[in-house]
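Data card: per-record layout.
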Amino acid sequence: MKIGLYFGSFNPIHTGHLIIANHVLNETDLKKIWLIVSPQNPLKPSNSLLNEYDRIHLAKMSTEGDTRFHVSDIEFKLPKPSYTIDTLTYLSEKISPTRILRNNGQ
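The structure for this 106-residue chain is written out next.
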């Protein structure tokens, strides 16, 4: 299965995030988008972010009922701050999708 990875703080998730994710799903042969919520982006001060568990909860609520989306807390289990390369390395050891399309959000 082809999975797209959409990394971001999702602080909070909003319509723009969902428009981008839906566009990618509709215009490519990806079957699923994983929204990977970053608990601590290394380029953002932590005091500027909503609580990480609130952000993941909002992302889950925003995608509820659409099986094409999976909200992942994988970066919650990795060292902070979150670096994409570390997450990709971890995921490559755990899953083997035929292709990964990466999109970093802001």
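Known properties of this structure: Strands lie at 3-8, 32-37, 69-72, 100-104. Residues 4 and 57 are 20 Å apart (CA to CA).

See the next section for split statistics.
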